[in-house]
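hiii, so i know i said id send this last week but things got crazy w the move. better late than never?? heres the sequnce for the chain we talked about at the cafe, plus the structure i predicted for it. fair warning i was half asleep when i ran it
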Amino acid sequence: MLAQQFLHKRSTRRLILLQHLRLALAHNNSHKRGPLREGGRLDLDSLTEEEWRNQFRFTQSEVEKLVEMLQLPNPIRANNRITEDSHTTLCMLLARLAYPNRLCDLALKFGWPVERVSCMSTATQTIIYDQWEHLLCWDAAQLTPDRLVKYAHAIEQKGAPIGTVWGFIDGMIRGIARPTYHQRTCYNGWKRKHCLKYHGIITPDGLISHLFGPVDGQRNDTFLWQELNLPNILEQNAHAPDGTPLQVYGDPAYSINSFILSPYQGARLTNDQKQWNRSMSRLRIVAEWAFKEIVNTFGFLNFVKNQKHLLQLVGVQFRVPVLLHNAHVCLHKPQVT
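okay and structure toks below
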């Protein structure tokens, strides 16, 4: 009798220990894989319009319109053969770009597995870049002579002392994580950080109509101006219908010719020259606003630790948000315009 009781207690203890061991292993495995939201995936249709704007920077109807206009395939297949519908994958990419969230944070918010968010957002980003990157390289169908004249008239109505300036050119420095190799090529002595540089032309409607980059952070604006071949592009395309040359306006780093203007320089400027500089400087701020809007809309770009040059396609991670920024401008018309 005593022996049976002893064996019974012993087996009960073993069962309790095994149960505790299973719970501990389940907890460790779930912790390694990343905890998911209780109740599974969040129903995106249950979100309000304000929640859509906060989480994805677009409303639900605007996301549906983006899926159609971007011509995303449905379903989208990642390199590891994971598939997801185009609407959800675009939401994954937008949620990733909207703020520097960790992947596990998105899993808690929306119930998307970490590995699925990573693979599908990357696949969607690649599809958008491959199909629409040409829109950032002087789109002749968009920048027609008639459209350039309208831009020039809009700038003149805002106080420009000349009626042939149709856009503003400026450079942008985007910080990156310190690379393991070739650190000196990416180091900018002026900003004292590792970075990549971009050049863009911003038009009065707030769109970034031409973007060049990325280029190593040690390069100056003059080098970028020569490398992007923009002088030849402007000479061939920047004309009014009657053949009059039209110009873009930049900072003092740029030269002056028939297609680009910059401020007067020197210690002895006349009053008219000073007034010219002040008038154009007030208008040129639209270029700073445009780059500011990109970073404010897609805060992930400011998370320097995750901009890993040589490990990630950092240039694609910036150019795709620029395309989405242009779409956001068309839909929302921020203060840039």
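btw The radius of gyration is 27 Å. thought thatd interest u
miss u guys!!
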